[in-house]
Each structure stands twice: as C-alpha cells, then as structure tokens.
Amino acid sequence: MAKIISCCGLNCATCEARIATVNNDDELRKATAEKWTRQYNGPEITPEMINCTGCREPGVKLGNVSVCEVRKCADSKGFRTCAECSTLESCSLIKPIHNFSPEALQNLKNMN
Description:
This protein is an all-alpha fold. The protein is built from 5 helices and no strands. 41% of the residues lie in helices and 0% in strands.
C-alpha cells in the first residue's frame, strides 16, 4: 500500500478514519470511534465524526485537521509537509506527534 504522508508525517493511508471514509464503512467508523474515545480518554467520539480523506488530500477532514497547528504552520511557510522545514527535529509544535508516533518522523526524514 502506498503511503499518503500528512504534514506531520503520519501515514493517512493506514488511518482507520480515512479507510472508513474511502470505503464508506460504517462498521469501521463505529469501531474507530469507540477505540479512539477509549484510547484518547477525551470527549466521546461518535461514528459520524469519523470522516477524513487525509490532511493533504481533497475531500472531507476530521474535525481537528482543519484547525491543526502543524498544518497551519506548514501552509504558512509554503511547505507541503514538515519534511521541508529546517527545524523539523527541534520543533516544539510537532514533537508531541513524533513522541506518540516515531514512524511519523521517519516518514518525513525518508522524504528528503
């Protein structure tokens, strides 16, 4: 499966929300909503919220993608992804994502 790399380096091609959206899979939406509500111990995520085609792909975006500070930063600098930024490894904005998903940082490094 080809990778679809977001601004921060996450691979949208493997994201359950994107897979559910592209395949119009309501069962996967439901399972993902339940999983993410437990995993992130935050407000309830409903199946109706699980709709996203990916950070840099045309189409619908998951609620937080449209206000993502990392995406806003990359856009303001004219970058497609953070791989283009000279402060990639020292950036305090993206560090929490890379702490959560070291693969995201590696995806960006592999782009150079």
